[in-house]
Design goal:
mainly beta, Deoxyuridine 5'-Triphosphate Nucleotidohydrolase, Chain A, six-stranded antiparallel β-sheet, 3 helices, 9% helix, dUTPase_trimeric
């Protein structure tokens, strides 16, 4: 079952679902979703002359990204072909009986801006801000303003609560993340790490 606005408001009031802060309920609560705003932090990928970034390489992916914090009142310019990691302004907590889907807003989609490449899922039990995988598929730069509504969450109720929700018991890599987080796929079991839950493809979401 997909939650309606009435269902979402009831879950928010009960406190088992958290989306915080919501400054304007009339604006952010849609008929079957919650609009999320863009944060001020971005991770930009540096140009590099290495042949590739391999998940099990000695160098961490973090070495190839730089953080940009946009000053109040300024914009982040997303150029054609760019791929950057952003973050939601809001922090979410997903209860064990819900799954959340991260979607782009159609108004931005019509400007050729997409908000996720593959990480469109917030698992039951996830807590934290949501990393956005921002791309400009168009031919003109687009100004992104922190605080603008950039994505939306829809919620699906599970038939039964997850027995092993996202979190420390699973060794989940992105639990309680704050700001955009670079890939931690090198910690996955198949690359010699201890991660066994497939978290790299989700937003903890990721």
């Amino acid at each position: 079952m997909i939650l309606s606005d009435a269902d979402i408001l009831e879950r928010l009031e009960n406190g088992d679902l958290v989306v915080d802060p919501i400054d304007d309920y009339d604006l952010q609560i849609q008929p079957a979703s919650v609009d999320l705003r863009l944060g001020e932090e971005f991770l930009e990928f540096q140009r590099t002359n290495i042949p590739c970034i391999h998940p099990n390489a000695e160098h961490e992916v973090d070495e190839y990204v730089t953080e940009t914090i946009v000053d109040d009142g300024d914009d982040f310019i997303l150029h054609p072909g760019d791929f950057v990691l952003g973050t939601t302004h809001e922090r979410v907590e997903i209860p064990d009986d819900l799954i959340a889907h991260v979607e782009g807003r159609s108004s931005l989609g019509r400007l050729a801006v997409v908000v996720h490449a593959t990480a469109g899922l917030c698992d039951p039990g996830y807590r934290g801000q949501i990393t956005l995988e921002l791309s400009n598929l168009g031919t003109a730069p687009v100004a992104l303003t922190p605080g603008m509504r950039v994505s939306q969450l829809t919620f699906t109720e599970l038939k039964t609560p997850a027995e092993r929700p996202y979190g420390s018991d699973r060794g989940s890599k992105y639990q309680d993340q704050a700001g955009p987080q670079a890939s931690r796929i090198g910690g996955d079991h198949e690359f010699g790490g201890d991660q066994r839950s497939g978290d790299d493809r989700r937003n903890g979401g990721e």
